[in-house]
Structures are given as structure tokens and as C-alpha cells.
């Protein structure tokens, strides 16, 4: 019940994760070319964005929807984005016609009782900056190395336009009449859920229940072991390159920045800043020792970041204990963490997006409560 008392959980023990499990198929739908051209909604390479969709199989859940945003990092500069435009994370041209559903998209009610028989949507990530970039003019990138120095690649930074066009298309499939809606996603898709969660909720004021439940999407603002903030600086620099502020409409943090409460509006692209201003009901699913964050933000003690820290020295364990404490401090600093209707499932497994796997979704537990059960109670 989204009106229940908050349920923050965290586990300070290492744990084992389960192997992957397959689910049922979801079919690919690309947005209409006319809509793409009208809105300027394009993947990095100019191809059409789209989504995978499986309609509800239960009349009782015909107004219940789950929307899931794919993750996959971000591109840091024009050259990086041009390279990315040749992959499935920058182009829809090579996407499969159908994909299996797992975790919160699993079609098995015994695994996913909340959404197995509801409308299930998976949105592939093809814009390079968290479904948020909004740059009017395309960028022409010239090749740097022989024999491609004369080659030019045109790329588009249109993540927010893509998201809007996809939601407009889903509205025609019934999303406009949604009563129960959850937005989720992992990694970059999880961070996008922080950034765009209130925007998505604002589109559906008639929904009886709306909640945001990102997986592995909380990336703390933290120094590396060497003492620099290089990764955070890259995020903020690339935010400007993608014109992320042009895609922050509906983001309450950005509204606070416009009132002068935040010095740099691009900080609203960071999960802790957006979280601190969120209005939507929110449920964090994250490891306090997230493998991606430790490798890319902390970037230290990398020789023992495996096998659940079994090969770490006492000093290295102390380093990770310090990171974990700092992570929790940043999460708990927001009043949203203890606000009625919100919750969290925070553990300390060395993992990133492991809950995307159905077996982990139904087995990873804190004090006997699994992720799936925690979501149901929330």
C-alpha cells in the first residue's frame, strides 16, 4: 500500500546471487516515422526509438502498468557518442523483434505477482544520457583515425523527446487510462527514474497509485580513492553537452534550481539531488556496495572487488565500510527516505543490477523478506 509507513531495510553482510532466468516475450514497437520527425525523437544515429510491450492478460489488471527503462552507462563526449551510435545503445536498427521479460517484467505470477499479468513495457536506451538530453541541432562528428578521417557521423541528443514520444504512443495503447503505474529501470535506467520520475507521474494525475522503484540507480557524489571527482565531473560535463536542462521539465530539483536553491542546475542529473526533491512515492532498490559505483566512482582497491571481498585486507575492508557508511549518509540525508509512502531495500552485496534476474528478484532477502515481497508490501 503506497500509503503505508516507510520500510527502509539494509543488510551489512555479503551474500550470494543466483543465475539468470528466462521469461515470456515482449514485442518491439518503434514509434511512427511521422511522430519521430514531428517531435525530433531519434536515437543517437537518427533511427526511431521504441519500446517492447506485452499487454495485460488479466481483466483485473487492465489498468495496471509497469514501465522499465534499460540501462547502459552514458557517452561522455561527441566522439564517444558517435561510437555508441553504432551499437544497440545508440541505434534501434539492430534491436530484436522480441525479448524475454524478467524480474519486475517476468510473466510468471509466482515470481512477479504485482505485474506478471499487467501491461508490461521495456524501453530500450538509445540516447546516451539517461532519457534526458534535449539538444535542438544534430552534431556532426568527424572520424579521428585513418582510414576514417574523412568520415562524418551525424548524431542526435534527444533522450527526453524520445521518452515523451514513447509515452504518447503508449497512451494510445491504453496508458492514458492507467490507475496503477510503476516506473523502474536499472543503472542508467535507474538514474533516469530519479530524474524523470516526477515528470512521468505528472502525465497521469488520474492514476490511483504511482510509484518509482529504480534498481542500482543511486550513484553517490563521492571522491575516488585518489581524492578526485573525475567521474562526477564527467557526468556533469556530459549533461551540458546533451543539454540535459532542456529535458529537466517536471523535475522538482530543477524547479528548485530555478528558484535559486541549487547553484548548478546540472546537479539535478545526480540521483541524490533529484531524490531530495521527489514528490512521487519512491522505493530504492540498491546495494550500498554497488559494483559499478565502486569501480567507476571510487576506483580503488580494485584488486579485491570480486568474490564478495573475500580477498580484501583489513584496511581494504575498512575502506569499503567507509564507502558504505557514506552511501547511507547520502541516502538518509533526504527527508524522502523516511517520508510516509516511501521505502528502500538496501543491501551490501557486490553487485550491479542483479535484481534484473528473476531468481535474484525472488531470492535476495533481508531478514527473510525478498525484493519481490518488499515491493508487494510497499
What can you see in these coordinates?
The chain is of the alpha/beta class. The chain has eleven helices and 14 strands. It has helices spanning 33-39, 78-84, 159-172, 188-202, 230-241, 252-258, 271-277, 291-298, 314-332, 358-361, 371-377, and strands at residues 7-10, 25-30, 50-54, 64-69, 98-100, 119-123, 139-142, 152-155, 180-186, 209-215, 281-287, 343-347, 365-366, 369-370. The strands form three sheets. It has a ten-stranded mixed sheet with strand order 1-12-11-10-9-4-6-3-2-5, sandwiched between helices. α6 crosses α7. The radius of gyration is 20 Å and the shape is globular. The N and C termini lie close together (5 Å).
Report helical residue fraction: 25-40%
> End-to-end distance, in Å?
5 Å
Given the C-alpha coordinates, what overall shape results? Answer: globular
Report the radius of gyration as a whole number of Å: 20 Å
Question: What's the helix and strand layout?
Answer:
Elements: E1 7-10, E2 25-30, H1 33-39, E3 50-54, E4 64-69, H2 78-84, E5 98-100, E6 119-123, E7 139-142, E8 152-155, H3 159-172, E9 180-186, H4 188-202, E10 209-215, H5 230-241, H6 252-258, H7 271-277, E11 281-287, H8 291-298, H9 314-332, E12 343-347, H10 358-361, E13 365-366, E14 369-370, H11 371-377
Descriptive terms for the model:
alpha/beta, disordered N terminus, 378 residues, two-stranded antiparallel sheet
Short description:
The chain is built from eleven helices and 14 strands. With 378 residues, it is an alpha/beta fold. β13 and β14 form a beta hairpin.
Amino acid at each position: 500500500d503506497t500509503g503505508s509507513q516507510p520500510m527502509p531495510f539494509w543488510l551489512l553482510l555479503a551474500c550470494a546471487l543466483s543465475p539468470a532466468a528466462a521469461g515470456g516475450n515482449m514485442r518491439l514497437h518503434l514509434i511512427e516515422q511521422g511522430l519521430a520527425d514531428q517531435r525530433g525523437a531519434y536515437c543517437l544515429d537518427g533511427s526511431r526509438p521504441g519500446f517492447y510491450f506485452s499487454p495485460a492478460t488479466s481483466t483485473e489488471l487492465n489498468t495496471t502498468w509497469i514501465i522499465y527503462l534499460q540501462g547502459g552507462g552514458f557517452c561522455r563526449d561527441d566522439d564517444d557518442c558517435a561510437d555508441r551510435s553504432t551499437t544497440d545503445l545508440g541505434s534501434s536498427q539492430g534491436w530484436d523483434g522480441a525479448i524475454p521479460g524478467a524480474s519486475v517484467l517476468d510473466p510468471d505470477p509466482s515470481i512477479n505477482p504485482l505485474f506478471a499479468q499487467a501491461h508490461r513495457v521495456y524501453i530500450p536506451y538509445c540516447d546516451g544520457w539517461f532519457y534526458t538530453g534535449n539538444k535542438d541541432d544534430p552534431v556532426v562528428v568527424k572520424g579521428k583515425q585513418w582510414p576514417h578521417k574523412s568520415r562524418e557521423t551525424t548524431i542526435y541528443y534527444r533522450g527526453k523527446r524520445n521518452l515523451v514520444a514513447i509515452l504518447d504512443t503508449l497512451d494510445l495503447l491504453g496508458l492514458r487510462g492507467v490507475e496503477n503505474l510503476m516506473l523502474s529501470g536499472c543503472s542508467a535506467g535507474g538514474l533516469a527514474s530519479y530524474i524523470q520520475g516526477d515528470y512521468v507521474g505528472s502525465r497521469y494525475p488520474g492514476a490511483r497509485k504511482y510509484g518509482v522503484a529504480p534498481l542500482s540507480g543511486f550513484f553517490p557524489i563521492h571522491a575516488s580513492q585518489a581524492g578526485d571527482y573525475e567521474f562526477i565531473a564527467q557526468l556533469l560535463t556530459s549533461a551540458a553537452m546533451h543539454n540535459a536542462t532542456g529535458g529537466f521539465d517536471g523535475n522538482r530539483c530543477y524547479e528548485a534550481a530555478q528558484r535559486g536553491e541549487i547553484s548548478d542546475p546540472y546537479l539535478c542529473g545526480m540521483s541524490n539531488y533529484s531524490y531530495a526533491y521527489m514528490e512521487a512515492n519512491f522505493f530504492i532498490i540498491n546495494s550500498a556496495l554497488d559494483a559499478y559505483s565502486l569501480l567507476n566512482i571510487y576506483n580503488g582497491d580494485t584488486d579485491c572487488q570480486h568474490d564478495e571481498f573475500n580477498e580484501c585486507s583489513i584496511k581494504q575492508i575498512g575502506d569499503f565500510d567507509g564507502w558504505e557508511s557514506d552511501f547511507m549518509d547520502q541516502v538518509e540525508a533526504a527527508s524522502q527516505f523516511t517520508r510516509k509512502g516511501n521505502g528502500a531495500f538496501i543491501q551490501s552485496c557486490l553487485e550491479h543490477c542483479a535484481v534484473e534476474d528473476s531468481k535474484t528478484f525472488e531470492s535476495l532477502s533481508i531478514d527473510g523478506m525478498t525484493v519481490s515481497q518488499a515491493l508487494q508490501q510497499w
